[in-house]
Amino acid sequence: MNQIGVVASDSTESTARVIVFEGKEKETAVEDLVLIKNIGGEEIIGVIREGLGINEALKAGEYRPGVAYTKKGGTPSSSREVFDFKVFSIGKIGDRLEQNLKVIAPRSKVYAFDSNENPMRYLSKGLEKAAYIGYYAGHKTWRIPVNVTFIPYHIGVFASTGGGKSYLARHVLIPLLRTLKYDVIVFDWKGRDYAPYFKENTIGLEDVAIDALVAADYLLDKMNFFGVSSYRDSNPLINAFKEYMEDSEWRNLGFEGFKVDLRSKIEKGLSEDESKYARQYLRKLERGLRRLKEEHFLEVCGRKEPKDIVAEAHEKHLLVINMVKAGSPQKLSIFLSIAKYLKERMEKDENVNLALLIDEAPQYAPFQPKGLQEDTTEIIKDLCALGRSYGLVIILLSQGIAGDIGINAAVRRNLNTQFFGSIHPLDIEEASKWLTPYGVKIEFLLRLPPGHFYFAGKMNPAPMPLLMSFELEG
Ligand SMILES: Nc1ncnc2c1ncn2[C@@H]1O[C@H](COP(=O)(O)OP(=O)(O)OP(=O)(O)O)[C@@H](O)[C@H]1O
Ligand SMILES: [Mg+2]
């Protein structure tokens, strides 16, 4: 260990200012971990969260000889210069890391950890299983231990765009869940962040059995709603099409068979009550069908029901649902049907041992849910509540934390572990609530490089957020 300074006046049981030995300020930085050998005998691990450089001769805003000399271009003296750091106690070393209750005495010696003296070993004490999440920022060999008991207490990952959320999910969270024998279903909203990396484990829209009305909407969109632009809800042709989609066995017919069957049924239906317009509608139908391609039709012919999808996730251990081709309502309804199935299973007292990783979470559970989002928000809340007892982990990734850009507050309350990366300025207030009590400066959070996150909450064995990063493997 390498002594860097001593504790200064005005220390408390949880924070201490440290006067830094000359030159040591060059080797010491914010977020470094230190060991304080308290004069009372305890050994306390702390983290540096703030630094200060003071030079009595160079006080700006005052006229002093040193200032005058500098103004003329002279090199200021360093003789009355001192650096200090503010250290926040993480805990007292004991059988496990315990809360320090005694005042950290002024004059106590403060040491920096050398790279080979991994302080993370103190955090692992008393944990039931060894599992790790990335490494302590700046020290690739200091892997951060996690308290695995709290994984099904759910996880939130927050960072503005490009902050590294999807990378964290891919390189850290999914591997962690897999080592702990949780199978994972990823809902890949954009089809960009997971599907290309797990090709063997990806299913697409064309595989999933979707609701007939959702399929009807999808095909109508591809057929430009038969050229009908207003009063679509009361248009007889559109209604006849939806009725057909709901009532017939079109999934078994193949594309050509489907078109033949659709024509004949619609022709029959229209000739009965709307004969005056029948020919016009049939022309619109033909034009619509000409726009429709076989691939569009095949995309809604999937046969995998929620139970098949979950079974496949267990069999392959990781299943990505690539939803890029679907419209928002379709994506939400796919999620909803799987969520409902899992909820039913848990209500029947079944353990599910599964993690649902939901990227772009505000699409499912926004600040103010509308339409289908009301259902998805509600069911995510239910899954969180049940998941704690039945081994279902919910992981939500979001660019924003709260308010317009964030996740619904009732859902957010269920996320007991949080990762905060570089946040959006609109989230300063919310992030401050979580991090400033531990001395993390919000300006610092706004500038975090990609792939750096404050790891906070139940899974973190330390009682305060730790700055972590991770390597990109594979
Ligand atoms: N640990 C890391 N080390 C180095 N670079 C990283 C790391 N994590 C992420 N990055 C870089 O950051 C970029 C953005 O990461 P990512 O796509 O995960 O962001 P995101 O938060 O998911 O953004 P969006 O909200 O737009 O989806 C990556 O392309 C990668 O280059
Ligand atoms: Mg992303």
Describe, in plain words, how this protein is organized in 3D.
- Helices cover 34% and strands 21% of the residues.
- With 474 residues, the chain is an alpha/beta fold.
- It folds into three domains: 2-117, no CATH class; 132-209 and 304-469, Rossmann fold (3-Layer(aba) Sandwich), CATH 3.40.50.300; 212-299.
- Strands 9-8-18-17-16-10-15-14-11-13-12 form an eleven-stranded mixed β-sheet, sandwiched between helices. A six-stranded antiparallel barrel has the order 1-2-5-4-3-7.
- The model has no long low-confidence stretch (mean pLDDT 93).
- Adenosine-5'-triphosphate binds at residues 159, 161-167, 399, 450-451, 469-470, 472.
Protein traits:
single chain, 474 residues, Rossmann fold, 6-stranded antiparallel beta barrel, 14 helices, elongated, binds adenosine-5'-triphosphate, binds magnesium ion
Tertiary shape: elongated
User: Uncertain spans, ≥5 residues at pLDDT below 50?
Assistant: none
Q: What small molecules does this complex bind?
A: adenosine-5'-triphosphate, magnesium ion
CA-CA gap between termini: 35 Å
Beta-strand residue fraction: 15-25%
Q: What is the compact description of this entry?
A:
The protein is 34% helix and 21% strand. With 474 residues, the chain is α/β, with parallel strands linked by helices. The strands form two sheets. Strands 9-8-18-17-16-10-15-14-11-13-12 form an eleven-stranded mixed beta sheet, with helices on both faces. It has a six-stranded antiparallel barrel with strand order 1-2-5-4-3-7.
